[in-house]
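Entry 14. Ran structure prediction on the chain below.
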Amino acid sequence: GMMEGYLLTGRNGFFHTYEAFAHVISSMYNQHCKWLEHCEEIPWRAPIGPWNCLISSTVWRQDHNGFTHQDPGFIDLAGNKKGSITRVYLPADANSLLAVAEHALTETNVSNIIVCDKQKHLQYLEIDAAHRHVAKGLGIWDWACNDDCGTEMDEPDVVMASAGDIPTKECLAAIEILREQIPQLKVRYVNVVKLFSLAPSSEHPHGLSERDFVDLFTPDRPVIFNFHGYPWLIHRLTYRRPNHANFHVRGYKEHGNINTPLELAISNQIDRFNLVIDVIDRVESLGSRAAHIKERMKDEIQKHRTYAYTHGMDSPEINNWRWKSGSDCD
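Output, structure tokens:
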């Protein structure tokens, strides 16, 4: 309430909260958004600074607090508001967060929700690349794909996509496993930083045209989407898309405890091993030829669950994982 009053005096504010506690100010967020909506109809109102909310201590890193702190639903509220005044950002690394903040702090008459965990995470993009990525809202990370090998441009067999830091890490780790285990499989990777870029351009300023959306996600190939929040939010945003039926969304499904990060991911099936299984199940051309790989993934899940239970942390293999596949098209 103090920050809202501060904004209305013509100044700027920044609000930070844990993800599970953001719901405490849900009604005040609603009121501010409704006020902004009506102000669009009043030409003499001066523009006000953005309502910025940084959400940290996210659902996927609750190895101490547990189930009570696992609720990514605050961003669902933004999906119910008018597109012209709502923004949701899910940067996957620190440079993307910097690029998001630079943009969010300068736009007026909007509410910005930025979801970014406060713990250490991998860095994927140089700062200039991060600025370009945030400007687009979503895009293909070429170095994580093998469906475009110079002049040999192929349709991907599957599109893998993610939004959020931990979901991105697990999605990239799954792609690396697929490259090692099924090298002939053509995989395209799409990262989403502006959540509402998934919505039609007629519904939100961040939204993509139908042509651009289909070009990215293909008209007919399966899309495995690894999402930070509740999976049905992605279905809400894409239900008008012609290829909506191709989307298979993984997200938080109210399964949790005081878990290690990988344990929690496994419980909600956003982990690298379940994603590989999902790809095998969805890509019809693989058939039963990938049955052995699928069984190995199930064994990996059991192995890492046992390690976490025994040691109280994830194995070094998981904690020290880095992208190493390169950008070649072997």
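The mean pLDDT is 94. Will compare against last week's run tomorrow.
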